[in-house]
């Protein structure tokens, strides 16, 4: 398992709308799951920096 932190680049002026759409989906997505919302695709220009991480604990991982 690994973690991925990425930056979404959106269409100018649509940052708040995209953030609202993504935040509305959070309650149904436990943990750090990767997801793309089809409704948000027209608001996304691309993806910028990304960093892979190694989770030390959390949902879905065995307790130490």
Main sheet specs: 2 strands, antiparallel
Oligomer: single chain
Order of helices and strands: EHE
Principal-axes shape call: flat
Average of pLDDT? 82
What's the structural domain tally?
1
Alpha carbon gap, first and last residue = 15 Å
The helix fraction, in percent, is 10-25%
The helix tally amounts to 1
Adjacency order of strands in the biggest sheet:
1-2
What structural category characterises the helix and strand content? alpha+beta
Question: Mind telling me the C-alpha Rg?
Answer: 14 Å
**Poorly predicted sequence stretches spanning 5 or more consecutive residues:** none
- How many DSSP-defined strands? 2
Description:
The protein has one helix and two strands; from the N terminus they run βαβ. By secondary structure, it is of the alpha+beta class. It has one domain. A two-stranded antiparallel sheet has the order 1-2. 0% of the residues are buried.
Give a brief description.
Helices cover 17% and strands 28% of the residues. With 64 residues, it is an alpha+beta fold.
Key features of this structure:
2 strands; two-stranded antiparallel sheet; 64 residues; 1 helix; single chain; alpha+beta
Compile the SSE list and pairings.
Elements lengths: L2 E8 L4 H11 L18 E10 L11
